[in-house]
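pasting for the record
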Amino acid sequence: MKPLKQLLVGPLCVLLCSFPVQASPQSAAQHAGQINALIPAASRNAQPAKVQDQLQWNDLLKTTHSGRVRAGLDDGSMLSLGSDTELRIVQHDSASQQTSLEMNFGKMRSQVVKIAKPGGKFEVTTPNAVIGVIGTHFYVAFEHGKTTVICYEGTVLVTPKANAQAQNNSGQSSTGNSITVAAGEMVEIVTHVPPGGFQTVSTPPAVKQNSQLATDTNDNTPPVQARSHVLRNLLIGSAVAVGLGVGLAVGTGNTTPKAATHNTPISR
């Protein structure tokens, strides 16, 4: 009986091993996108980030004072993170168009593909607001307890969270309700409502331009501050090189000769 058992076990193992192991739908859905461009220093899950790093659900992206990141999501949406920003990709399922992002601080510009799936959503959460879009180009920042949302194209729905209040253009209270921010408009959400409340207003051209510049990676081109340091270092290096050249010339007596006098006899 024992030889028969061994005889059956061997072919059975070979047969089972011949079937390819397939990833479960859940593991396949964990992929969210990849980093397309960055300006160091930036990190992914507390490790140095690199171009073409693959992004997964719950990945934490963080940029320093001199860092920026542009990431592409699987559904074609683009995320451009400015400096001093922390963003968690909580969820991104391109098949069902379910995306949830958490920005603890910083600034981000997003170009979101149109939501066409029933029940699809694209939400960005800050400490005091939830920003929902259907398909648009917008900017969101959270600094010093204030969420700023600028809509470039399409419309954005901003919902104040607990203890945050805002008012829409009609002046009606919008606490707990979504505020529609149309293209060319912006809104600010803070904890304490000032006299007269908050209202969506037209985005000043300078504010719009600054928000775009603050989240532009330019394919690994250093930001303005970094470029100024590079230029300064180049100027300092050039000055040092010139100084060394002059010092060597003086030390070796390599000065400019006077005009030679013709027909001067040579001493023997």
